[in-house]
Protein: ABC transporter permease subunit
Organism: Herbidospora solisilvae
Amino acid sequence: MIRRILTRLGTSVLVLWGAVTVSFTALHLTPGNVVDVLIGSSIVTPEVRAQIIADYGLDEPLFVQYATYLGRVLRGDLGQSYQLHEPVASAIGAQLGPSLQLAGASLLVAVVVSTTLAILTARRRPWIRGLSSNLELIGVSIPTFWTAILLLTIFSFQLGWFPAVGADGLAALVLPVIAVALPITTMLTQMMREGLELTLEQPFVLTARTRGMSDLGVRLRHALRHVLVPTVTLIGWLVGLTVGAMVAVEQIFSRQGIGQLTLTAVGGKDLPVVMGVVLLTAVLYVVVNIVVDVLYLLIDPRLRGAT
């Protein structure tokens, strides 16, 4: 188990190094002077331009610039946003909390709802399965931004049940969470139900039933455990979908967060912030994959012997 985690950590270091290298390459391949690229549409004094050249080592050979940039990233220095007039790390850190709150709540709701629906609909009457499948198809087909607009129009503007904008309080979190969680829930439900139906056909399930175990008990204690590994795999992949959905949802509901910050940075050509978000995404990818690997080993002890 430890060896597998260490192997994953080694791979993660290579992924992060690749993300840093791609960011550095993009900075230097962008048309125009590097200083002008970094400051975007901001107007700075000659002193500030000289400071940028010194900070990034732009008067040094390219490999020295790369080493300087790599060292800054390793120290947690993601550079300065000359449009926000603050360090990139501070700008991202200030927006990270609301985004983590939205992402965590959305994934939690999606996992709970999809698990419940899968258990209740697996191997039921055809019309129940058909209705569930059709609803899942509709849910996964509707774009997240369109779902968010519909929720905002109906439950905020017309009914007035939830606030239309902002991120203060639990009520302001409800509609954004539904918008982000809907496509995740539909995909998880479909995959888990199919896995449960295959598992419920296995001989050990019949053995459990002959021992007097109830149908719900069989589903919870035996069948569900066999679909946890593919479920965890899919959840890990869906984290990327969650991040993408949050960009649109934060913009529609005027919520603070990384998505809102990213759109503002792209629109204002604030490349240091964009590069910082790219590195943050790489870190998120690494963390999610490590967590998924650890969960594999905890869910299925047989995998420990294969490491």
User: Anything to note?
Assistant: Strands lie at 80-81, 86-87. Residues 88-121 form the longest helix (34 residues).
